[in-house]
Design goal:
By secondary structure, the protein is mainly β. It has no helices and twelve strands. Helices cover 0% and strands 59% of the residues. The strands form four sheets. A three-stranded antiparallel beta sheet has the order 1-2-5, with no helix packed on it. The protein has a three-stranded antiparallel beta sheet with strand order 4-3-6, with no helix packed on it. The model has no long low-confidence stretch (mean pLDDT 91).
Amino acid sequence: KPIRVASTKVLSLNGQAVAVIQLVNPNTNIGAEKFSYSLQVLNDAGISLKTLNGESFIYPGELKYIIEPNLDYPASQVKDLNVIINDIKWQTGDKFIKPKIQIRNLETGFLEDSLAGEVGLPVGGHGIAVKGVVWNGETNVFKNIILNVLLRDQSGIIVGATRTMVERLGAGEEAEFLVNFPWSDRLSGAEIKATQVFVEVKN
């Protein structure tokens, strides 16, 4: 079965459009160790503003998010996203296993209730901070680990999205991460216990 684009969403971060793409691999016994995708950014009239091309991968049975944090257009100008997946290189599940990289000690807080200076904003500033630890449970070293961070409201709707990267994580090591979301009206409904961090790393 083909990789399915389950949903797309356009959010705003600092006024700029952010793309959130949810992919599903319905195959529980095979994964795609590599595939290409194109992301077409559309305005209200359905006219293409730009097209982004990228490569990724997806493990057997995985639900995966791809976040493009800056589409170079104000969020008010972007109406829709069109995603096309091609050039899939399939691999059997026994040869393409998701590594044991875990998120621990995840905390989310409104900056009014924490030290805003810790995330580079003025103390007393407005926004949301997300911090935690990523742990490598494998015996080998991983590089360029992408962490896709989602904020949700009480209904489970995504209200904020961004990504960060851990450049290197040795066997058994852990590293702290910290991201911040500058204030927007949409974030007022964020449920701090609903934050999700999805690890993107290839074995």
